[in-house]
Specification:
The chain is of the alpha+beta class and about 250 residues long. It is about 50% helix and about 15% strand. Helix 8 packs antiparallel against helix 9 and helix 8 runs parallel beside helix 10.
Length: about 250
């Protein structure tokens, strides 16, 4: 669990044509672009026109994108993903009173797929599993709970006997997250080519989605969350403007 920033390994996944299109649209508001703009925007990634058009067709067929009059936009399912991504970059918080949220799974008779889906939803709400079926976190976040989650759990407010700082350190790999964040900050600063910057920023988003967004009192010193968010926001805005500016010239 404990890793130093210098030793953190950063996984940079190669971006396929599908990944580039999704990353571009997820960072664009509103998330829709004409095909001619997409063709120009993906040029720095070495993606040709035939490759892009084939990827777009597959994405429409898979329900990732919708198409109207030569304009491609995110489907309703991926619009929800964009909202989650925006919330990960700019989470809404409130002053922490020391109370914790607790969600206890009450639904029964669920199959493996339904159980996995519920676990994913609870993780997306930034709760951690204390024990099987019991999920907790400090009550410092403001975010909606999906109806299908609230129908499957009982929700409570609690004050743990265990010191909150110790409990948070036990539930979340804070040192590892911080080490990876510091490494990504360095990669963001060093990236020069648009394709490299885009790839690094995609890794930043994945890490921000895993940030527990804990109250400052429960975080280690020199917590890099705010710096990583600021770096992502600034670099992503500039990169998107460059790509769209190139596309529209």
């Amino acid at each position: 669990m404990n890793a130093s920033p210098k030793s953190a390994a950063v996984e940079l996944r190669p971006l396929s044509a599908r990944s580039v299109v999704l990353s571009l649209l997820l960072g664009t508001h509103p998330p829709e672009l004409p095909v001619k703009d997409l063709l120009r925007a993906v040029e720095p990634f070495g993606i040709g026109g035939s490759t892009l058009r084939a990827a777009l067709s597959r994405m429409v067929a898979a329900g990732d994108l919708r198409r109207a009059d030569g304009v491609y936009g995110l489907s309703d399912r991926l619009l929800e993903r964009q909202r989650r991504q925006d919330a990960a970059v700019h989470p809404r918080t409130r002053r922490w009173s020391g109370e914790w949220e607790m969600a206890v799974v009450t639904a029964t008779g669920r199959g493996p797929a339904e159980r996995a889906e519920l676990r994913a939803h609870l993780g997306a709400l930034r709760l951690a599993e204390l024990r099987e079926g019991v999920w907790v976190r400090p009550a410092n976040l403001l975010r909606p709970w999906p109806d299908d989650v609230t129908r499957s759990v009982g929700r409570f407010t609690a004050r743990p006997e265990e010191p909150a700082h110790d409990l948070a350190a036990r539930l979340w790999p804070l040192a590892g997250w911080a080490a990876t964040a510091h490494a990504l900050l360095a990669r963001v600063a060093d990236a020069r080519h648009p394709a490299e910057r885009f790839t690094v920023l995609a890794a930043v988003v994945r890490l921000l989605l895993a940030d527990p967004v804990l109250p400052a009192d429960l975080l280690p010193d020199d917590w890099p969350g705010p710096a990583l968010r600021a770096a992502y926001t600034g670099h992503r805005q500039r990169l998107t403007e460059e790509m769209l500016g190139r596309a529209r010239r």
